């Protein structure tokens, strides 16, 4: 009861602070709008992506296909054995692999429909995976058209031979045949691509969504910014003397601390609801994609609660070490903005490069963004984000334990 | 004394090498206004902090209403009220919101809480401004809410830590009247101050503390009486002969004469007679006087007598 009283008192103080309300609720939405617009047309032309390829066919057509994919700008192919490729994709060492099945070349030559298999790992970067699918699809379509056109002309030649040269091979006839084969290549291509993930993800998103990539980062950034608010609240309570007054009351220290951390936790959950709600309902009104909340709302709730706890615990840790308002601000800049920058909260990790991307993994932000992205962009479930949840729990426990140990009540 | 409401024995607080409180022992009677008088840095706030459970003593015991503070912490805290020196309030909340919050912390709830808050607001004269934010109040009004927050749960012992610092005379008077009224209703009050006149006006007994030590404890009257007629402090020109001190000490109306930092301090039974005698001596020895101060017997002069220092340097 006293915990709730302390929490409610701080929520009242928070509500009366217009600046805090704007920073916590409006600023994240502005951030999302700006960055979503910024990312919606970006392509990295200089980035070279390696496409692992398994060639089970070995025939001429398969070789041509692989060569044409390899000659596409920004793509390099690398051959793998099937078992190795599948194992590495399932183990998430490779993001994806293209499997050219046995009989591919013969099938294409015979004009029979064949299917290429593009397998994705659960951790595959959605933008890269989509790019790969598009590249292979493009090459496959060209190959289909080429093959079908050739088959079509051959057929015409055979027909002419059969007619003993009585029917002239006119240019109109050639164009009509080409046209027909072109349309057939579009609607019923010889070569199709099947995209698959080893863990049988229920629904694959096939479209790159700037909103889907921006919202996780913005949410995590501003949620962890609340840690400085929690820290400042503890500091202010000590500075104004009300902390001393509370310690003189029949109130356990644990009650006092939990009460001080509770508002941050509640406000973060409100933040998450507002950000996600606005991203679903309001962003489409200004021409952006609607945020897709994924297939597992329970996982979303669990993740959000855990991130809220992590942020509150981080606030306690900051309060335990910072002695002045300036120190809280300084630590917050590092903890929030720098950590946010290297973790993929500002921009997706594939923009950061390998070095920064690796550093980011020591931040809770990275794992939070990763988990949200898995839910929003790859449509994964609670079971898939187990590792991220475990790591975030670890961060929470460490922050809380050290914060509690170092926090001075006197 | 019947069983005291609060007692402490051998209370010590050590910070590293510095001993802030050195073995303070005292007992507070029920219904008493007990003063802790001493200059800034004497250890008054540290002592209060230990008595209210804010600080863990390095050594010593504290009992409140027969209960050991360590073993019955929450029960003891329920009986104590603290009005800290700083304004321990939430400035963006109203007086009513502040009082409701602190009331809940002390276990009040529902209708009882609402009624008690109304009573306290009435007591401190802020019913009409109850819903305004504290930050809009004058300093005196804030002090009144600060006191009110300590009274909500009807404590048996109220600690007032320098409640009139920075307060205008009118509000100061209002605080005195509040303390007297609370005491008439049966509340014991422990009042810390470095203003001698407050201690003399309000307190049944006064403990004089300096440098963490309790150096005197008695009623104001008894403490002042122990001093006799008063103290004469005469500033003399540099290089005055030691003889002047010896001659002054031998005057019939003088209890003691000492030389302190270029001043002659004379404790007397009879102030006027002693003054005439000392001035006569300085004349005969042709010693120039740079200053002259007559300290009527009061707690300030008691403090000076006991420590050689002033309450407010």
Structure overview:
The complex is a heterodimer of chains A (410) and B (313). Chain A has 410 residues and is α/β, with parallel strands linked by helices. Chain A is built from 15 helices and 5 strands. Chain A has a 5-stranded mixed sheet, with helices on both faces. In chain B, the strands form 3 sheets. In chain B, strands 6-7-8-3-9-10 form a 6-stranded mixed sheet, sandwiched between helices. Chain B has a 4-stranded antiparallel sheet with strand order 2-1-4-5, covered by helices on one side. In chain B, a hairpin with a 2-residue loop joins strand 4 and strand 5. The longest helix of chain B is centred in the middle third of the chain and has 16 residues. The mean pLDDT of chain B is 89. At the A-B interface, helix 1 and helix 9 of A face helix 2 and helix 3 of B.
Summarize it.
The complex is a heterodimer of chains A (410) and B (313). Chain A is 65% helix and 7% strand. Chain A is an alpha/beta fold and 410 residues long.
Keywords:
heterodimer; A: 410 residues; alpha/beta; 5-stranded mixed sheet; elongated; B: 313 residues; 6-stranded mixed sheet; 4-stranded antiparallel sheet; 11 helices; 14 strands; 28% strand
Number of helices of chain B: 11
Order of helices and strands of chain B: EEEHEEHEHHHEHEHEEHEHEEHEH
Radius of gyration of chain B: 23 Å
Radius of gyration of chain A: 29 Å
Specify the biggest β-sheet of chain B.
6 strands, mixed
Strand order of the largest sheet of chain A: 2-1-3-4-5
Question: How many DSSP H or I helices of chain A?
Answer: 15
What does the largest sheet of chain A look like? 5 strands, mixed
| Overall pLDDT level of chain A | 83
What percent strand of chain B?
25-35%
Q: What structural category do the secondary elements of chain A indicate?
A: alpha/beta
- Percent helix of chain B, as a range, is 25-40%
- Low-pLDDT sequence parts of chain B: none
Shape of chain B: elongated
Estimate the mean pLDDT confidence of chain B. Answer: 89
User: Which protein chains make the most extensive interface, counting residues with beta carbons within 8 Å of the other chain's beta carbons?
Assistant: A-B, 22 and 32 residues
What are the secondary-structure elements of chain A, in order, as H or E?
HHEHEHEHEHHEHHHHHHHH
Residue share in β-strands of chain A:
5-15%
